Amino acid sequence: MQEDIISTTATRLQSEYKNALAATSLANAVELDLGSVRMIDSQGLNLVYGLYMEAKKLKWSFKVINASAPIIHLFSLLKLSTFFGLE
């Protein structure tokens, strides 16, 4: 991911990710690299959680990687860290 996941980007990113998941037939895992992401707002959180749910529906593993300390803290506050493989 090369940009913040906020309201102005979430709809487009959601579409891109759904298309990528649908086009990937040999995968069994999703790794969401947040190394370049500085900010996630409520719509961004909804997008990440939606990706997690889609992966689970497909019986794939899901993990967030390279998240910054503030983003990890946000996920922890919202009790999402374990879902996203951060603990």
Describe the structure.
There is one protein chain. The protein is mainly alpha-helical. It has one domain (7-77): Transcription Regulator spoIIAA (2-Layer Sandwich). It is built from 3 helices and 2 strands; from the N terminus they run αβαβα. The protein has a two-stranded parallel sheet with strand order 1-2. The mean pLDDT is 88.
Termini separation comes to 21 Å
Share of helix, binned: 40-55%
Number of helices: 3
Instruction: Report the structural category.
Output: mainly alpha
CATH superfamily placement: STAS domain
Q: H/E element string?
A: HEHEH
Proportion of beta-strand residues: 5-15%
Total count of strands: 2
Outline: globular
CATH fold annotation: Transcription Regulator spoIIAA
Under the CATH scheme, the architecture is 2-Layer Sandwich
Considering the chains and any ligands shown, give keywords for the structure.
87 residues; mainly alpha; Transcription Regulator spoIIAA; two-stranded parallel sheet; 3 helices; 48% helix
Summarize the structure.
The chain has 87 residues and is mainly α.
SSE layout and pairings?
Layout: H1 7-23, E1 29-33, H2 42-57, E2 61-65, H3 69-77
Parallel strand pairs: 1-2
Helix pairs in contact: 1-2
